[in-house]
Amino acid sequence: MDLGIRDRVAMVAAASKGIGYAVAAALAEEGCRVSICARGGQELEAARARLETIGGNGRVFAQVADVSRSGDIDRWHAATVAALGAVDILVTNTGGPPAALFTALTDEQWEAGFQSTLMNVVRLSRLVIPDMQRRHWGRIIHLTSLVAKHPADDLTISTTLRTGLSALTRTQSNQLARSGILVNAVLPGNTLTERARHLAAVRATARGITPDEALDHVAQSVPVGRLADPAEIGAAVAFLASERASYITGVSLLVDGGVAQCPI
C-alpha cells in the first residue's frame, strides 16, 4: 500500500536505535526525507548511514541532540529545515525515565523525567506547528508507552508523565484539527529493545532469576505470547503519519499484543 507521504519531511527524535530507529526506517521506506537525532554521535552516524540505503530517497539528516535540552531542540529543528525543508511529520520520542518505586525517587529524578518525557514534546510541537498551519497539513505522533493505560509499579515516573502525554495528545488534536494537523499517540507494549533488556536485568536481580527468564516471563504475560519487534511499532507510526489515516486524530493507539484489553 502506498501511504502517500513520499518526499514529506519527517523529524524523529531519539532515533539512533530501538523503536525510534524503527520508526525512522518505516518512514524512509515510504520515501520520506528523514531527520533524526540522538545523544551519541557514533550510533547516530551509523543509523544515518543505514537509513540512507532504505527506500531509494537517500535524504537523511542527522544531528546530535539531547531532547531534554531546549537549546538542542531549537538547533536540531533549525538545521532540519535548512537541510530538508519545513517539517510535515513530527515523531516525538525519548528514552524512559529510571525504574523505581515512588518512595525511592528524588525531586531531581522527577524534574529530569519531566524535562525529557513531557517538555521535549511541548517544545518540539511548538516549533513545527506554525509551518504545518501555514500549509494546512501536518502529522504529530507521540511515542509514549503501554504504561499510560496499564501502569507498572516500578515505572512510577514514566506511568505518571506518559499518562499526562496522552491528555496532551487529545488536547492538541482538538485544537489543531481544523488546521489540517492530526495528532495521535502510539503506546508500544513490551518491545524487544535495549531498554527492555535493561529492565529485564534489573527485575531479574530483584527476583533472583536470569535476564532471559525475566524476558520470557514478560513475553508469557502478553496474550500473543511474545514481545513486539520494533518494526511493528514503526509500521503503526508510519500509517498514522500517512494520507491513509486522514480521518484519525486524538487516538492513543495501543500496540501491545493485547495486554491492555480493558482501558483504565
Q: Helix count, per DSSP?
A: 8
Query: Cα-atom Rg, whole angstroms?
Result: 18 Å
Mean pLDDT score? 93
Briefly, what CATH class? Alpha Beta
SSE layout and pairings?
Layout (H helix, E strand, L loop, with lengths): L8 E4 L5 H12 L3 E6 L2 H11 L8 E5 L5 H15 L4 E4 L14 H29 L2 E6 L12 H21 L4 E8 L5 H14 L3 H10 L9 H11 L11 E4 L9
Parallel strand pairs: 1-2, 1-4, 2-3, 4-5, 5-6, 6-7
Give a written overview of the molecule.
The chain has one domain: NAD(P)-binding Rossmann-like Domain (Rossmann fold, 3-Layer(aba) Sandwich), CATH 3.40.50.720. Helices cover 47% and strands 14% of the residues. It has eight helices and seven strands; from the N terminus they run βαβαβαβαβαβαααβ. It has helices spanning 18-29, 41-51, 70-84, 107-135, 156-176, 194-207, 211-220, 230-240; strands at 9-12, 33-38, 60-64, 89-92, 138-143, 181-188, 252-255. It has a seven-stranded parallel sheet with strand order 3-2-1-4-5-6-7, sandwiched between helices. Helix 5 links the parallel strand 5 and strand 6 (181-188). Helix 3 (70-84) runs parallel beside helix 4 (107-135) and helix 4 (107-135) runs parallel beside helix 5. The longest helix has 29 residues, at 107-135. The protein is globular. It starts with 8 loop residues before the first strand and ends in a 9-residue tail after the last strand. The mean pLDDT is 93.
